Amino acid sequence: MLVEYFAYKYTQDEKKNENYASPYQNNIYIVNETEPIPTPLMILYFVLYLILGIYAAKLSWYSNTVAGWSYGYKVLFALFAFMFPCTYITAHVIFKLDLLERIRKGRSF
Questions:
Q1: CA-based radius of gyration for the chain
Q2: What distance, in Å, lies between the first and last C-alpha atoms of the chain?
Q3: Is residue 40 predicted with pLDDT exceeding 80?
Q4: 71, 86, 89, 101: which is deepest, by most CB within 10 A?
Q5: What does the DSSP 8-state code read for residue 108?
Q6: What is the pLDDT of residues 92-106, one digit of tens each?
Q7: C-alpha–C-alpha distance, residues 14 and 8, integer Å
């Protein structure tokens, strides 16, 4: 989510002043520019991302501790979980919940 935010900001801030003049401009249908996202909505988006990112990183750290990964791997996985929280939480629900439950109870596959 954060990557999309910065990509949006780059396209809004850097590309809005470029001149797209062309010798064929009279033959081109000019599309009206879209309005930028309002600031309160951007703040809400950032806060939601932060909350989901922290939750995903904490979930990653806990589940990798239960699985027995080393400290370096836990840091790496938590970093990626923080950067892509929706993807990580979805993958965690689909793939890891049953595995972690089996590990906690001490059962084998």
A1: 22
A2: 35
A3: yes
A4: 89
A5: -
A6: 888 887 777 777 777
A7: 10
Name which of 4-18, 23-37, 89-103 the model is least confident about. Answer: 23-37
2-14 and 39-67 are packed helices; what angle lies between their axes, rounded to 10 degrees? 150
Cα 103 from Cα 107, distance rounded (Å): 6
Q: Which residues contact 49 (CB under 8 A, 6 or more apart)?
A: 1, 2, 5, 85
**Three-state SS at 48:** helix
Rounded CA-CA distance 18/11 in Å is 11
71: tokens are 């400290």
- Give the distance from CA 95 to its chain's centroid: 19
This prediction's pTM: 0.61
